[in-house]
Amino acid sequence: MDSGISITAEKLVEVTAKYASQISVKEDEYIRAVGFSSKDMGKRVVARVSFWLVNQESTLLYCRLCNKGPFTKRGMFLHLTRMHHSEIKLLLEEEIKREIKAIL
Prior knowledge:
Layout: H1 2-20, H2 27-34, H3 39-51, E1 54-57, E2 60-63, H4 73-83, H5 85-103
Antiparallel strand pairs: 1-2
Helix pairs in contact: 1-2, 1-3, 1-4, 1-5, 2-3, 3-5
């Protein structure tokens, strides 16, 4: 069970970084990451984790994990995927576990 959660979290890291950076995420990106049947769950998890990643002041984005910034949308995405990949994956794993508990 945990390895499936880990794999799902890994697939959602880039989608989450993109969403947190305020770059639009298309429906098929969620489907590609978690499959059609889990798309809605994927969206909820991504939205909740993204909330803890980025702080916005006017049009500037700052990283909540390390307080660095300001970044552009693209710069924020690159920062999150390069510097905080493992932290984002852990946050996603916890949120996916919470989602599964709510279902069971």
